[in-house]
Specification:
By secondary structure, the chain is an alpha/beta fold. About 35% of the residues lie in helices and about 25% in strands. It is built from 9 helices and 10 strands. Strand 7, helix 6 and strand 8 form a beta-alpha-beta unit. Helix 3 crosses helix 4, helix 3 packs parallel to helix 5 and helix 4 packs across helix 5. The chain starts with 5 loop residues before the first strand and ends in a 21-residue tail after the last helix.
Amino acid sequence: MDAVTASLEVSGLAFAYPDGHQALFGVDFAIARGERVALLGPNGAGKTTLVLHLNGILSGGTGTVKVAGLPVGRQHMAEIRRKVGIVFQDPDDQLFMPSVREDVAFGPAAAGLKGPELEQRVRTALERVGMQDFADRPPHHLSFGQRRRVAVATVLAMEPEILVLDEPSSNLDPASRRELADILRSLDVTVLMVTHDLPYALELCPRSLILSDGTIAADGKTGELLADDELMRAHRLELPFGFDPRPAPVPGGRP
Protein backbone atom coordinates (compact mmCIF):
# COMPACT_ATOMS: atom_id res chain seq x y z
CA MET A 1 0.00 0.00 0.00
CA ASP A 2 1.61 3.28 -1.01
CA ALA A 3 1.66 6.37 1.17
CA VAL A 4 -0.80 8.17 -1.10
CA THR A 5 -3.59 5.65 -0.44
CA ALA A 6 -2.88 4.99 3.25
CA SER A 7 -5.04 6.81 5.79
CA LEU A 8 -3.09 5.27 8.62
CA GLU A 9 0.35 3.67 8.84
CA VAL A 10 1.67 2.25 12.09
CA SER A 11 5.23 0.98 12.05
CA GLY A 12 7.19 -0.63 14.88
CA LEU A 13 5.05 1.03 17.55
CA ALA A 14 6.18 0.04 21.05
CA PHE A 15 5.15 1.72 24.29
CA ALA A 16 5.66 1.22 28.03
CA TYR A 17 3.83 3.13 30.75
CA PRO A 18 5.86 4.95 33.43
CA ASP A 19 5.27 2.09 35.89
CA GLY A 20 7.16 -0.19 33.49
CA HIS A 21 4.13 -2.02 32.06
CA GLN A 22 4.87 -2.69 28.40
CA ALA A 23 1.59 -2.35 26.48
CA LEU A 24 2.77 -2.47 22.85
CA PHE A 25 5.67 -4.51 21.47
CA GLY A 26 6.12 -3.38 17.88
CA VAL A 27 2.79 -2.95 16.13
CA ASP A 28 2.74 -2.76 12.31
CA PHE A 29 -0.26 -2.25 10.01
CA ALA A 30 -1.64 0.11 7.38
CA ILE A 31 -5.22 1.04 6.55
CA ALA A 32 -6.15 2.34 3.10
CA ARG A 33 -8.35 5.38 2.61
CA GLY A 34 -12.02 4.41 2.90
CA GLU A 35 -11.40 0.99 4.50
CA ARG A 36 -13.48 -0.17 7.48
CA VAL A 37 -11.32 -2.24 9.81
CA ALA A 38 -12.11 -3.80 13.19
CA LEU A 39 -9.52 -3.94 15.97
CA LEU A 40 -10.23 -7.04 18.04
CA GLY A 41 -8.55 -8.48 21.09
CA PRO A 42 -9.06 -9.53 24.70
CA ASN A 43 -9.00 -7.06 27.59
CA GLY A 44 -5.47 -5.94 28.32
CA ALA A 45 -4.28 -6.56 24.74
CA GLY A 46 -3.26 -2.90 24.27
CA LYS A 47 -6.18 -1.70 22.13
CA THR A 48 -6.80 1.53 24.06
CA THR A 49 -3.07 2.28 24.25
CA LEU A 50 -2.84 1.88 20.48
CA VAL A 51 -5.87 4.12 19.81
CA LEU A 52 -4.50 6.89 22.04
CA HIS A 53 -1.33 6.97 19.91
CA LEU A 54 -3.31 7.68 16.73
CA ASN A 55 -3.87 11.34 17.57
CA GLY A 56 -1.00 11.93 19.96
CA ILE A 57 -2.86 11.65 23.29
CA LEU A 58 -0.13 9.15 24.18
CA SER A 59 3.43 9.50 22.91
CA GLY A 60 6.98 8.81 24.02
CA GLY A 61 7.28 5.24 22.77
CA THR A 62 9.25 4.02 19.77
CA GLY A 63 8.12 3.53 16.18
CA THR A 64 6.00 5.79 13.99
CA VAL A 65 2.35 6.57 13.34
CA LYS A 66 1.41 8.43 10.16
CA VAL A 67 -2.03 9.82 9.34
CA ALA A 68 -2.54 10.65 5.64
CA GLY A 69 1.25 10.70 5.33
CA LEU A 70 1.79 13.10 8.26
CA PRO A 71 3.83 11.78 11.19
CA VAL A 72 2.00 12.06 14.51
CA GLY A 73 4.10 14.43 16.58
CA ARG A 74 4.22 17.93 17.99
CA GLN A 75 4.86 19.60 14.63
CA HIS A 76 1.57 18.44 13.05
CA MET A 77 -0.54 17.92 16.19
CA ALA A 78 -3.38 20.35 15.38
CA GLU A 79 -3.77 18.87 11.88
CA ILE A 80 -3.56 15.27 13.20
CA ARG A 81 -6.25 15.93 15.82
CA ARG A 82 -8.53 17.26 13.10
CA LYS A 83 -7.85 14.24 10.88
CA VAL A 84 -8.33 11.56 13.56
CA GLY A 85 -11.74 11.68 15.24
CA ILE A 86 -12.17 9.40 18.24
CA VAL A 87 -15.68 8.50 19.42
CA PHE A 88 -15.32 7.27 22.99
CA GLN A 89 -17.36 4.45 24.50
CA ASP A 90 -19.35 6.78 26.77
CA PRO A 91 -20.99 9.61 24.76
CA ASP A 92 -21.22 11.68 27.95
CA ASP A 93 -17.43 12.07 27.76
CA GLN A 94 -17.99 14.08 24.58
CA LEU A 95 -21.26 15.92 25.16
CA PHE A 96 -21.06 18.82 27.61
CA MET A 97 -22.85 21.80 25.99
CA PRO A 98 -26.46 22.93 26.65
CA SER A 99 -27.73 21.78 23.24
CA VAL A 100 -26.94 19.22 20.57
CA ARG A 101 -26.20 22.00 18.06
CA GLU A 102 -23.65 23.64 20.38
CA ASP A 103 -21.93 20.31 21.04
CA VAL A 104 -21.56 19.61 17.31
CA ALA A 105 -20.41 23.21 16.65
CA PHE A 106 -17.82 23.19 19.44
CA GLY A 107 -14.90 21.63 17.53
CA PRO A 108 -15.28 23.50 14.23
CA ALA A 109 -15.85 26.79 16.11
CA ALA A 110 -12.68 26.23 18.12
CA ALA A 111 -10.89 25.64 14.80
CA GLY A 112 -12.05 29.08 13.59
CA LEU A 113 -15.18 28.29 11.61
CA LYS A 114 -18.08 30.74 12.06
CA GLY A 115 -21.26 32.13 10.52
CA PRO A 116 -23.06 30.29 7.70
CA GLU A 117 -20.09 27.97 7.13
CA LEU A 118 -20.25 26.76 10.73
CA GLU A 119 -24.03 26.34 10.56
CA GLN A 120 -23.72 24.29 7.37
CA ARG A 121 -21.02 22.08 8.91
CA VAL A 122 -23.24 21.39 11.95
CA ARG A 123 -26.32 20.72 9.82
CA THR A 124 -24.45 18.30 7.55
CA ALA A 125 -22.94 16.38 10.49
CA LEU A 126 -26.35 16.00 12.18
CA GLU A 127 -27.98 14.91 8.91
CA ARG A 128 -25.34 12.22 8.43
CA VAL A 129 -26.35 10.62 11.74
CA GLY A 130 -30.09 11.28 11.40
CA MET A 131 -30.22 13.72 14.33
CA GLN A 132 -31.02 16.99 12.52
CA ASP A 133 -34.44 17.23 14.22
CA PHE A 134 -32.83 17.20 17.67
CA ALA A 135 -30.45 20.15 17.21
CA ASP A 136 -32.06 22.27 19.95
CA ARG A 137 -32.48 19.48 22.50
CA PRO A 138 -30.26 19.23 25.58
CA PRO A 139 -28.12 16.08 25.10
CA HIS A 140 -29.13 14.70 28.51
CA HIS A 141 -32.76 14.54 27.30
CA LEU A 142 -31.80 12.06 24.56
CA SER A 143 -31.68 8.27 24.73
CA PHE A 144 -28.28 6.59 25.04
CA GLY A 145 -28.36 5.55 21.36
CA GLN A 146 -29.22 9.10 20.28
CA ARG A 147 -26.39 10.49 22.41
CA ARG A 148 -23.96 8.10 20.76
CA ARG A 149 -25.10 9.30 17.32
CA VAL A 150 -24.60 12.93 18.40
CA ALA A 151 -21.12 12.01 19.68
CA VAL A 152 -20.38 10.64 16.18
CA ALA A 153 -21.69 13.91 14.70
CA THR A 154 -19.35 15.99 16.92
CA VAL A 155 -16.44 14.12 15.33
CA LEU A 156 -17.83 14.18 11.77
CA ALA A 157 -18.22 17.98 12.05
CA MET A 158 -14.40 18.17 12.03
CA GLU A 159 -14.38 16.35 8.64
CA PRO A 160 -11.87 13.74 9.79
CA GLU A 161 -9.78 11.47 7.61
CA ILE A 162 -10.24 8.59 10.09
CA LEU A 163 -13.12 7.81 12.43
CA VAL A 164 -12.02 5.71 15.41
CA LEU A 165 -14.89 4.15 17.37
CA ASP A 166 -14.37 2.61 20.81
CA GLU A 167 -16.96 -0.15 21.42
CA PRO A 168 -19.63 1.61 19.30
CA SER A 169 -22.35 -1.00 19.90
CA SER A 170 -21.98 -1.27 23.70
CA ASN A 171 -25.16 -0.59 25.72
CA LEU A 172 -27.27 -0.15 22.59
CA ASP A 173 -30.64 -1.82 22.15
CA PRO A 174 -31.05 -3.83 18.90
CA ALA A 175 -32.79 -1.00 16.99
CA SER A 176 -30.13 1.57 17.97
CA ARG A 177 -27.41 -0.93 17.08
CA ARG A 178 -28.87 -1.37 13.59
CA GLU A 179 -29.36 2.39 13.09
CA LEU A 180 -25.73 3.04 14.01
CA ALA A 181 -24.58 0.27 11.65
CA ASP A 182 -26.53 1.88 8.78
CA ILE A 183 -24.91 5.24 9.56
CA LEU A 184 -21.39 3.80 9.73
CA ARG A 185 -21.87 1.99 6.41
CA SER A 186 -22.98 5.22 4.74
CA LEU A 187 -19.96 7.31 5.79
CA ASP A 188 -17.25 8.13 3.29
CA VAL A 189 -14.39 8.02 5.81
CA THR A 190 -11.82 5.49 6.94
CA VAL A 191 -13.16 3.62 9.98
CA LEU A 192 -11.20 1.82 12.70
CA MET A 193 -13.62 0.13 15.08
CA VAL A 194 -12.40 -1.20 18.43
CA THR A 195 -14.93 -3.78 19.56
CA HIS A 196 -15.66 -6.93 21.56
CA ASP A 197 -18.86 -7.30 19.52
CA LEU A 198 -17.66 -9.83 16.96
CA PRO A 199 -20.93 -10.08 14.96
CA TYR A 200 -20.88 -6.26 14.64
CA ALA A 201 -17.30 -6.42 13.39
CA LEU A 202 -18.33 -9.03 10.81
CA GLU A 203 -21.32 -6.97 9.71
CA LEU A 204 -19.44 -3.69 9.29
CA CYS A 205 -15.75 -4.39 8.72
CA PRO A 206 -14.50 -6.55 5.83
CA ARG A 207 -11.05 -6.65 7.48
CA SER A 208 -9.99 -7.19 11.08
CA LEU A 209 -6.80 -6.94 13.10
CA ILE A 210 -6.36 -9.06 16.22
CA LEU A 211 -4.20 -7.34 18.83
CA SER A 212 -2.95 -9.71 21.51
CA ASP A 213 -0.24 -9.13 24.11
CA GLY A 214 0.78 -5.88 22.45
CA THR A 215 1.36 -7.22 18.93
CA ILE A 216 -0.77 -7.82 15.83
CA ALA A 217 -1.47 -11.55 16.01
CA ALA A 218 -3.59 -11.71 12.86
CA ASP A 219 -4.69 -9.44 10.00
CA GLY A 220 -7.19 -10.66 7.45
CA LYS A 221 -10.77 -10.95 6.27
CA THR A 222 -13.06 -10.71 9.27
CA GLY A 223 -15.13 -13.76 8.36
CA GLU A 224 -12.03 -15.93 7.92
CA LEU A 225 -10.49 -14.85 11.23
CA LEU A 226 -13.73 -15.43 13.16
CA ALA A 227 -14.15 -18.87 11.54
CA ASP A 228 -10.66 -19.96 12.71
CA ASP A 229 -11.53 -21.70 15.99
CA GLU A 230 -7.91 -22.24 17.00
CA LEU A 231 -6.99 -18.58 16.42
CA MET A 232 -10.04 -17.40 18.34
CA ARG A 233 -9.29 -19.67 21.29
CA ALA A 234 -5.61 -18.68 21.37
CA HIS A 235 -6.55 -15.01 21.74
CA ARG A 236 -9.54 -15.44 24.09
CA LEU A 237 -12.11 -14.21 21.57
CA GLU A 238 -15.58 -15.70 21.98
CA LEU A 239 -18.42 -15.67 19.48
CA PRO A 240 -21.96 -15.50 20.89
CA PHE A 241 -23.53 -18.91 21.46
CA GLY A 242 -24.92 -20.31 18.21
CA PHE A 243 -23.40 -17.57 16.01
CA ASP A 244 -21.71 -18.95 12.88
CA PRO A 245 -19.44 -16.49 11.03
CA ARG A 246 -19.28 -18.69 7.94
CA PRO A 247 -21.48 -17.64 5.01
CA ALA A 248 -24.71 -19.60 4.68
CA PRO A 249 -24.61 -22.26 1.95
CA VAL A 250 -26.25 -21.27 -1.33
CA PRO A 251 -29.51 -23.23 -1.89
CA GLY A 252 -29.05 -25.73 -4.71
CA GLY A 253 -25.30 -25.24 -4.65
CA ARG A 254 -22.71 -27.90 -4.03
CA PRO A 255 -22.47 -29.23 -0.47
